[in-house]
Amino acid sequence: MSFPWTKVKTAFSFFFQSKSKYRIHSPFVYGLITSAIEGNEFEYKNLFEKTAQLKSEAFQKNETFNYSIQGAGSVIIDNKKVVSVRKLLTSAVSSINKLKFIYKVASYCKPSVIIEVGTSLGLSSFVLNNVINSKFVGFEPVKELADYTDKLLKQSGNNNWQLFKEPFEGNLVNPNFRNEIVFFYFDGNHTKEGLRSFMTEIEEIAKMNTIFCLIDDIRWSDEMFEEWKKVELNKSVSLSLDFFQMSFISFEKKFQKEKFKIFNVKSIRYLLH
Predict the structure, then answer these.
(1) Is residue 149 within 8 Å of 140, Cβ to Cβ?
(2) Positions of the chain with pLDDT lower than 70, given as ranges
(3) pLDDT value, residue 81
(4) CB-based burial of residue 191 (10 Å sphere; 0-12 exposed, 13-18 middle, 19+ buried)?
(5) 159-192, pLDDT tens digit by residue?
(6) Where do the domains of the chain lie, and which CATH numbers do they carry?
(7) Nearest Cα to 133, choosing from 111, 115, 162?
(8) DSSP letters of 199-230?
């Protein structure tokens, strides 16, 4: 196997172009780094002990099910129709550290609604459903994954959630959303078409609501990263943060048009699988 020089070059380029918290002048971004990413984890200790327990139990049971492929990112399971939960947990589900990052960033935004696009086995859904004073909404088009997510959400202790077992395309815009703070976690269709469709819908939602969004796996492929660069340049996007593996955007007009590559030791630890 050849050495991944391209990935190494990309990582070094990111490092030299990135900024630390000491070079950030935006109060919101500085707070996101210091309060959310670097903040104390003790108050979330029970939540992530429970999450780790659920992940371990799923690994031990190692159920299998037929798996219908929906989009890029879901195809990495040897192209087999029968998939083991253990295989998904080791190759397609976020680490506990990454789940902490997602939870802390979502909590920092103080959303009234959280929408996850692509729930997979539901561990991130379980975590996001525990963000204080928020309603959770999930979209997962693969029935078997959606059923698994449903089981975990029922164990979360918070009944203020909805799960749609269907694609997100054409279904995100909700006429009932007015003056809400909506946090999106996009970990679904990792293609340029998928990201483009997602952006079209949340731009519409942003006309009536405050929108914050985490987009996962922006460097999943060359086409995914090229589409991400278009997101950064989108006139409606007022703030974009590149954490290398994941990105954060907002449409809030109170922000000046800013984009940063963020290097932070703790965020790197969180986002390493």
Answers:
(1) yes
(2) 1-12, 16, 67-81, 175, 264-273
(3) 62
(4) middle
(5) 999 999 999 988 998 767 788 999 999 998 889 9
(6) 21-62+95-271 (3.40.50.150)
(7) 111
(8) HHHHHHHHTTSEEEEEEE-TTSSHHHHHHHHH
